[in-house]
Each structure stands twice: as C-alpha cells, then as structure tokens.
Amino acid sequence: xxxxxxxxxxxxxxxxxxxxxxxxxxxxxxxxxxxxxxxxxxxxxxxxxxxxxxxxxxxxxxxxxxxxxxxxxxxxxxxxxxxxxxxxxxxxxxxxxxxxxxxxxxxxxxxxxxxxxxxxxxxxxxxxxxxxxxxxxxxxxxxxxxxxxxxxxxxxxxxxxxxxxxxxxxxxxxxxxxxxxxxxxxxxxxxxxxxxxxxxxxxxxxxxxxxxxxxxxxxxxxxxxxxxxxxxxxxxxxxxxxxxxxxxxxxxxxxxxxxxxxxxxxxxxxxxxxxxxxxxxxxxxxxxxxxxxxxxxxxxxxxxxxxxxxxxxxxxxxxxxxxxxxxxxxxxxxxxxxxxxxxxxxxxx
Length: 349
Hints:
The chain is of the alpha+beta class. It has one domain: Endonuclease/exonuclease/phosphatase (Deoxyribonuclease I, Chain A, 4-Layer Sandwich), CATH 3.60.10. The chain has seven helices and 18 strands. The protein has helices spanning 2-25, 62-83, 98-105, 189-213, 232-237, 257-261, 283-286, and strands spanning 27-38, 89-95, 116-119, 129-134, 139-147, 163-170, 173-181, 218-224, 240-241, 252-253, 267-269, 272-274, 277-282, 294-296, 306-307, 328-329, 332-333, 343-348. The strands form four sheets. Strands 1, 2, 3, 4, 14, 15 and 18 form a seven-stranded mixed beta sheet that branches. 42% of the residues are buried.
C-alpha cells in the first residue's frame, strides 16, 4: 500500500508540472484504441462470452485478465509520457462492460488523470461495446446518448455495436464526439460493404444534424471502421476527405488517409497493412477560425494523424513477426495488447 501511494505521488508530481506547461499551450490529445476482446472472467448468460471464461476454450482467467490490464496501463501511460499529458478523451472498442472500464480507470498510473467513463451496454451478440474515457478537468461533459445502428438492408436480427455520442466543452467550445465499431468484413469485403456504408451514412446524418442545430459545434468521429480511408464507406458515405485545404462546409477531414496512401496502417492481414482505426474531424475543426481550437500538426510531423507504435506493441519473432502483438492467436495466449495499434490527434489553441 505504501509503495502504491509513493508511485502515485511521483506520477502526480510529474504530471502536475507537465499539466501546467500543457495548459499554457492549450494542447489536447484525443486517442482511439481497439483493445481487442477485453472481457471479464464472469459468464454473462445474455451474451456469447463463453470463450472468455475460465472453463472456455481460451481458459481466460484472472491472471490473464490482470496481464491484459497491466498491458493497457503501460500503453496509456506511455502515450501520456510521449505527449507530456494524459489524453483528454480516449475512445475504446471491444470492451465487455462497465466493470472492465472501471478497472482500467483505476489503474495506478492512470489515477492522476481522474478518468470518467461514458458507456452504455449495447446489443452486440458477443457483448462487446464502445466507450469513452474523459478527463473532467479538460472536457466538461454535458450529455451522451447511445444510438442503435440503423442500416438499410440488414437482416432483422442483425446485432452490431451501437453508436456512442458524447458532447460537452473543451476550453469553452462545443464538441461532439462519436465512437463506433463498424460491422466486420465477414463474408467478404464486397458482400458486407453495404453494412459499413449504411452505418457511415447514419453517422454523417448525426454530424449534419448537430451542425444544423449548432453551426459552431466541432465534431470528432473515431473508431474501428473495418474499412480503409479510401473505401466508399469512409470517403463518400461519411464524407471524410483527403485534402484539408479543399474542404467545404459540412465536409469531414481524415488525417489518416494520406498516411494510408503512404503505406502506414494499424493492423495487418495476410502481410498487408490496413488502416481501419480512424479519427476524422469536421471542417470547422480542421480549418478552424482564428483564435479557436483547431486540429494541429507538430512542426516535425508529416501528418495530422498519428499512430502510436512503440516497439513493445509488436511481435518480435515467429510467423507474425512485425505484426501487432495480440492477446491470443487462435486459442494460444500471447500475453500481448491487441491486433490493432492506437491512433491519436492533437487539438490546440
């Protein structure tokens, strides 16, 4: 106990000094991460979680769960160290319930951020949801809503993740955050494309309505899109454009599209990198009026989007050398993080 108090005291002291510097520059970090199958060890009879219980095929137990939490603590704290401040908003996907989110927020090295949780249980058949963590000292939460996916042509019993919206203020300016985990490519990319395109169009409608009601609100859409930036769902249905300097009113800008064109990605399939993890922003954040919060690129950075990729997140040997080090390959425990890499953006004034 004394050791934990000492560790937390050191972290608080370090980040208080960092926080003062950050407050002067008014830089805010927004991050998204697919944490890959973060289940607790207790069977829930309302969902299909039997893989992730001690008697299941993956023999998921407290030791493995705690290892996963330790990994997430190392990851999120490394992001904070790299950016010299805890992220303001973190969106996550593939979390089972509020209990696992509370376990993350309670990790020793994350306690100084005082992360609050925005989460609703959704209808996904496996029970995995999306959620937000937010720093109440930087994001003034005003409300949230979980919105059921409404996809034309989807079968009647189709169960996918809800859309999570959260709104409030950063530095006195209105923001709407949306986190989502789009339907997978199961059955093939082309055969399943209508599902992602329909969901993307629904999200665009939410953004447009928010801007209609409040033209000044700045919108950030993040998630695992299960499509690349150039795919129709993202580029056309969501309207997330490649060129920041060619945006029109109502457009969205994708800071990760040029990165993907240049060969970067956040997950690997058959030795090819995809960039499914995206954070896109409204035109009035990408090209913000003078004196207001705007999307920011550091002087030495090539892109407005960033992929966090320290060495510890990668497989070091074997068949999947160079891939993100995941929790399981099949039913073989790898003690890793996720099959995805985290992405983030900076917002500054």
